[in-house]
Structure formats: C-alpha cells, structure tokens
Amino acid sequence: MPKRILQGTVTSDQNEQTVTVLVERRYKHPLLHKTVRSSKKYRAHDPKNEFKVGDTVRIQECAPISKTKRWEVVTAV
C-alpha cells in the first residue's frame, strides 16, 4: 500500500529534529454547497533541522518515530 504524501506549511521548528506542519484541506459542504476549509497539524521528523517557519513542505507517512511523530519531511516545495 502506498504511503500518503501531504503538503503543508511549517508552523513551528522549536524542537530538535521535529517540525509542526499545518495541512489545509478544502471540500464542498454536502448540503450547503459551500467550500469549507479544515486544517490539521502533524508533527514530522526533520533530521537535519533544515526547515524553518513559513516553509512549504511535503510530508510522508512512516513508522512511528516517537509518541507523536508518524510523518517525515520529504522535500520543500
């Protein structure tokens, strides 16, 4: 089964080897037919500490690295 890849913006890089990525999703409301924006934050592994706040990155699923980290940064966009 292929691993999911998501794109989002780095909102925090304070922790060592970890970035927090905000991923926004848009969909049409089934009844009101209005575009709804929902977002979710993911903690991703950044081994070289190369990404800073405001960077747009792609993250990919991986095996659990810590209690909250199940994603790793693939590339910057």
Automatic annotation (TrEMBL):
- Role of this protein: One of the primary rRNA binding proteins, it binds specifically to the 5'-end of 16S ribosomal RNA.
Q: Which residues form a coiled coil?
A: none
Q: Which domain of life is it from?
A: Bacteria
Which Gene3D superfamilies did the record assign? Answer: Nucleic acid-binding proteins
Entry keyword Transcription: no
Key word RNA-binding present = yes
Gene Ontology MF annotations: rRNA binding; structural constituent of ribosome
Q: Which GO terms describe its biological process?
A: translation
UniProt keywords (A-Z) are: Ribonucleoprotein, Ribosomal protein, RNA-binding, rRNA-binding
Tell me what gene encodes this: rpsQ
Belongs to which family?
Answer: Belongs to the universal ribosomal protein uS17 family.
Name listed for the protein in its UniProt record: Small ribosomal subunit protein uS17
GO cellular component assignments: cytosolic small ribosomal subunit
Q: Which InterPro entries match?
A: NA-bd_OB-fold, Ribosomal_uS17, Ribosomal_uS17_bact/chlr
Assembly and oligomerization: Part of the 30S ribosomal subunit.
| Listed HAMAP family | Ribosomal_uS17_B
